[in-house]
Amino acid sequence: MQTATALPISARLRERFSRAQRVCVLTGAGISAESGVPTFRGGGKTAVWKGMPFDVISSARMVQRDVVAVWEWFDYRRDLLKSLRPNAAHREIARWQDRFEDFTLVTQNIDGLHQRAGSRNVIELHGNIWRARCVTCDTRHEISQQDKRAAACFECGDPLRPDVVLFGEMLPPGAFERAAMKASECELCFVVGTSALVYPAANLPEIAKAHGAYVVEVNPERTALSTICDEVVKGEAGEVLPLLG
Ligand code: BJW
Known about the structure:
20% strand, globular, three-stranded antiparallel beta sheet, binds ligand BJW
């Protein structure tokens, strides 16, 4: 039976949390909201860039049509990220990796804030905004916070594009498979700050649930996944997660 809790954390969840050995966490844009990173959806709003909804500008089709416009959108967002910091939720999750015997963090976020908070071995399903990729030979290029990004591939001279997964594109090879395996093995699964509308990421909590995990959602709003969760903790990630640790 599902419980929907307002703060503080239920006794049942505390008990599960203190006994768990295999834990899997899926995060989305909402976990970075308290750092100042805009979400895509939520609160009835949709992100828009220069009049284009994000699912138009962040699409495989747009890379082919107008890669310059796509770069503008990602350059703007990298610029914004420069002044932002990980928040209490990122830091709490980073602590969990040393607390549990088997811990997996899977993120849909491209902002790198989990890693900046100290998380290791993060499975990034949708790539990373701090990398570019050659459209021809796939060579990856790190983008530093200080320098201007490279204009062309240093291997073959062809154009670069952001190394992120846009609508209609495949996820990085093996990333979903590793995440799905960990989801199927975990006993406690947290779903934090995602509207759970984008696939295949949204399948992960369902996989965990189907394999017997206790699934907990942390989000100020109900989502597409709320009904399958064992517990829904309504609140902001930076407020809720530190109460568990
Ligand atoms: C807080 C909070 C606080 C606020 N604390 N919470 C099956 C069915 C239907 C369609 C498909 C399907 N399988 C695949 C598809 C197609 C498509 C898809 O899913 N479409 C659906 C939208 C219908 N998927 C794909 O195209 C994927 N590729 C794929 O499947 O490849 C195979 C294939 C190829 C070709 C053809 C067909 C199949 C790729 C998806 C890539 C998604 N990319 C983006 C953009 C990345 C680059 C960029 O940043 O611009 O990734 S889209 C965008 O959505 C971004 C996010 O990672 C992703 C998920 O969003 P997220 O994280 O959930 O954020 P929000 O904003 O939606 O929600 C925020 C939440 O936080 C809200 O709930 C708030 O309440 C909450 N919140 N403050 C806690 N303080």
